[in-house]
Structures are given as C-alpha cells and as structure tokens.
Amino acid sequence: EKPLVLNPWNLDALSEIERETGKKVFTILQLRHHPVIMQLKKEVSQNTDPDKRYHIQLEYITSRGSWYHHSWKGNTEKSGGIATNIGVHFFDMLTWIFGPATTNAVTQYENDRAAGHLTLAKADVDWFLSINAETLPNEVKQQSKRTYRSLTIEGKEIEFSDGFTDLHTVSYQNILNGTGFGLEDARASVQIVHEIRQQIH
C-alpha cells in the first residue's frame, strides 16, 4: 500500500529481492487511476510550450481524532509522520504529471499539520496537509464535513473529491493483469517524503 517503504534505499533492497526471487513487488498508487487525474496528465503532456510552468496549490485536510497520535500512525518511525502518511499519494500524483522534484522545502511541520514548497520539472507547488479539523475552511465546517481536498492549477480548481470508491479495485485488477505499478514508480514520492523528514530532524 503506501508508502511502499519509508526510505529510498529500502527500494533498492526490495529490488534485490526481486532479482533473487524472480518475483515482482507492486504498490498501490490509486490516484493515477482517477479519471480526473488521468485527464490532467493528458492535458499537461499535450502542452507543446517547453517553457510552460504550472502554479499549483494543494490542500488536503482529513480530520482525525486523538487516537491517531496514539496509534502507529502517530509514530514517525513507523508511519513516517504526517507528510508521509497522508501526503505520499499526492506527491506521487504531482510528480507523475509534472515531473521530478528539483527543490523541496518545508515551511511548517507539526504533529498534526505540515506545509512546504516543491519545485517540479514543470510546476511550482505549495502544499498544506493537516489532520486537525480546526484547519478546515469555515464553509466546510458549516457543512459538517470532515475532509477537504483542493487542487488548484493556475487558480483553477481541479475537482477530484469524488471517484475514489473503486480505485483500489482498479489498482488490484491492474496488478493481477501484470500492469500494476512497481518499485521505480514509487521512488519519486518516497524520495520527497524522505527529504521532508530529513528537514525536520
């Protein structure tokens, strides 16, 4: 599932096991199967302007109770911390579409929220992740919702809150068909969350 591993060198160890056994390790990167995200990747890949850079704002707030900090997810040694645990899929999605990260700066990091800036090959990304319900926008609180996903590109909202129901099923179907995502597919996002943790220690 996710993250496949916490550190880039763990991918190398799994790769060695693949060679030794002749078997293949697959991982779940379900956002790559989301129709809206797939369409976005198509549009970006079809842009013929080599100098085009996208300005992206990513916010993901998913409320969690105090149990979160008392479970293994609250243990950075096990979960990698908040940016790894709830952010890795989004970092994978962004690098899949806009290319690898060249700079990675953390601007805020607490046990219930984190923020930073990524420079990707084709995009500049400001991101904010939180499990604290108090950080939800007021209009979301008024609707008694507990989760908020927002991805804006050039100021335009990319709505992908729906369509998550069957993504794991699609992921497993692809794995069974032999077309699932492997170790190298996970490397870019694993590298990003590893670098984030290095900055906060």
What does this 3D model show about the protein?
The protein has 201 residues and is α+β, with helices and mostly antiparallel strands. Helix content is 41%, strand content 22%. It has helices at residues 8-21, 35-45, 67-70, 76-79, 82-98, 138-142, 167-176, 183-200, and strands at 54-62, 101-110, 113-120, 123-130, 147-153, 156-158. Helix 1 packs antiparallel against helix 8, helix 2 crosses helix 5 (82-98) and helix 5 crosses helix 8 (183-200). The mean pLDDT is 93.
Care to give the gist of this entry?
With 201 residues, this protein is α+β, with helices and mostly antiparallel strands.
Salient structural properties:
single chain; 201 residues; alpha+beta; six-stranded mixed β-sheet; 8 helices; 22% strand; globular
Specify the number of helices: 8
Beta content? 15-25%
Largest sheet: 6 strands, mixed
Low-confidence segments, given as residue ranges, are none
What class would the helix/strand composition place it in?
Answer: alpha+beta
What is the gyration radius calculated from CA atoms? 17 Å
Shape: globular
* Total E-strand runs: 6
- Taking all residues together, what is the mean pLDDT? 93
The largest beta-sheet arranges its strands as 2-3-4-1-5-6
Helix content class? 40-55%
Encode the helix/strand succession as letters: HHEHHHEEEHEEHH
End-to-end separation: 25 Å
